[in-house]
Specification:
By secondary structure, the chain is an all-beta fold. The chain is 0% helix and 49% strand. It has no helices and 25 strands.
Amino acid sequence: LDFSVIASISNDTITNNQVVLGAGIVFDTCAPSINNGSECKLRFPSNNGTEQFESKAIPFTIKLFNDNGTQDDSKVSTVVIDDKSPTLKISVPQQKFTSKHNVILNYEAKDFACEDPSCNNKCAGLKSIEFNSSSGFKQIVAFNTSNALVCAANSSITIESKLFNEGQNAIFAKANDKFDQVSQGQSVAFSIDTKGPVILINSFAIIRKGFSLSTYGPNPVPIDVFINISAGDLDLNSVFGDFSVLNPSQKNDKAECTLAHDHLYACKWSIDLNPGTSSNTITSSVVSNQTNATAKPKTIIINATDTSGNSESASISKSLILDDKGPRVLSLSTQF
């Protein structure tokens, strides 16, 4: 134990034998202090020895004597023998986090000196809590103990979900006190799901009476629009399509989706193909002979969300040709 005191007596230069710990342990040194008086120091036990102290709060008295050996002053204080590491608990409010969520990590740290009742509400003070994960995430919560010791801390940290790997993750933590005593390591597991449904663009098809369409006529006709979506947890009520380029009134239509097989959904819309003639809904050239027609793409937007809230959107270009001419009779012959 290292003791240090500032001692002063008017018109007296303090020497080490005037400052005594307890019944008769004389301080090692005394020297003039920049704050007036003398700074006196004692290391106990002396000569760099060691002694096993009982884990409790130990009271002590330091006495100051004048030159004739009369006690001039005394101070009573307590030294606490701290043999306990901090304790730490961590938790998360939910087991799965998505791209829409930040990971919330709750922590509760406590520091205390010893089990003896004399150590009640006494501690070395929390210094920091260190967090890390196998994904590379690291963070340190440091406690400002310049004004008062922090014996307990109960709070949380917020972490962006993108800092973790997709799937199962774990955060590890440990608390340190001002004596660099370390708590037992703690960990908490959770999963990250930031991947939304996969909209399979190549499966997109416009079907009428069993045939895939590449043309449209001047009059409205009923069609079926199909697309497949791959997802482990597709929200069946979240699949919508913007078909306004095929029909200005079909801007936000909900699909009918069924599970085709593992993680693959077949989605369907039944609409009327009626692009009209407005320049913002139809971009194909109007031609009189389909053979010489040039198809220009139309953009269709499909949106889907899974049950975790991860959303995906796909823009699909579909080339259609206006066919506004009926068949022509090119030749006619008779046989007799």
